[in-house]
Amino acid sequence: MSEKEASSPDHRRLGQELDLFVFSDLVGSGLPLWTPRGTLVRNLLDDYVWEMRQKHGYEKVEIPHITKKDLYETSGHWDKFKDDLFRITTREGHEFAMKPMNCPHHTQIYARRPWSYREMPQRYANSTMCYRDEQSGELNGLSRVRAFTQDDAHVFCRESQVREEFLKIWDIIEEFYGRFGFSLTIRLSFHDPKEPEKYLGDKQRWALAESTLRAMAEERDADTREGIGEAAFYGPKLDFMAKDSLGREWQVATIQLDLNLPERFDLTCVNEKGEKERIVMIHAAIMGSIERFMSVLLEHLGGTLPLWLSPLHVHILPVSDKHADYARTILQALKNAGIRAEIAEGDSLGKRIREAKTSKIPYLIVLGDEEVGAQTATLEGRAGKIGAFPIAEIVSRLHTEIQTRA
Ligand SMILES: [Zn+2]
């Protein structure tokens, strides 16, 4: 490996150094396996998104990872995506597929009963794995995989509710990407009126949907541009582009308005006049794919995860064996406060400090004769020594930093 390769952030190398994920020849390419540390990071990201969704009235749902072919024939995905699907024939000869997305399944949860306009919108959140049979040559670390987790959500609502629901998702996206220091720009992805045959649904509905999106962007004073011809065939969307620390631009979240699936699955609610009213669907993943987001995040941060997202918060370093008891007391105090800590023993202090820095542990707690005597410990952050404090103070300082996702 050249010096340049060693220093440029590659999420595959960072993932290995931080012990987050692994690939196995026996399992197959494009199928990442998540270690305990990697799983922890994924769950922390997912919990964060869920916390924000919950405030906006989302509810969790769960679905099987396979379906009869019939679902995708109705949704239209069988025609469009049948070559990308992992297909299964049962012993009774029925054809099934692994799900490449969750929307069709979710429509069937919505369709379980009639809904009054008073109960709208219905908002379903579901972080779950999807499967696409990508070609081997196109697979690349976590950026392009065959099994990926969507932090997916679908809002079933009336056309009059689109604006409010979009704005809620927009808030979540801004908070989420802002927290990691990404700057966002937005593309209003609209249909191309010169190619009407490429899009579904009547002109009027498109015009209304697009003007709603445009007004929203103006109102928010967002950094937006219009992308004519960038709409999905089933509706316009807001695409969010994140600029990372290396100046690269990634398409991350999207909010998509869907006029098609409600039509295909005949999804309605009963309006104020007692009539059936066609609803619309909003697709609203925040990270998109957790795998792809992690590849972007790891490279953006050069592997230096913020404290709340670090698999391990603290290494406790007793200067010598005789400080081991005190180190265990500190460990217990940290653990009681939900802080993920380990004692690093054995090697020389210098070596242990270097190792902790290589594995990007956010904090070190060093203790020797002086600290045991004063019942304190010396706290060291990534930028260097912070000082000696009573244990309770260290616990409360780290606890606050974790809770606030600083
Ligand atoms: Zn969807």
Features:
single chain; 406 residues; alpha+beta; BirA Bifunctional Protein, domain 2; Rossmann fold; 2 domains; five-stranded mixed β-sheet; 36% helix; disordered N terminus; binds zinc ion
Care to describe what's here?
It contains 14 helices and 20 strands. The chain folds into two domains: 9-301, BirA Bifunctional Protein, domain 2 (2-Layer Sandwich), CATH 3.30.930; 307-403, 3-Layer(aba) Sandwich (Rossmann fold). An eight-stranded mixed β-sheet has the order 3-7-8-15-12-11-9-10, sandwiched between helices. Strands 17-16-18-19-20 form a five-stranded mixed β-sheet, with helices on both faces. A three-stranded antiparallel β-sheet has the order 4-6-5. It has helices spanning 3-7, 11-17, 36-55, 69-75, 77-81, 103-110, 162-179, 203-220, 261-264, 290-301, 324-336, 349-358, 369-374, 391-403; strands at residues 21-22, 33-34, 59-60, 66-68, 87-89, 95-98, 122-131, 147-157, 183-190, 224-228, 237-243, 249-258, 268-270, 276-278, 280-283, 314-318, 341-343, 363-367, 376-381, 384-390. With 406 residues, the protein is α+β, with helices and mostly antiparallel strands. α2 packs across α10. Zinc ion binds at residues 101, 103, 154, 283.
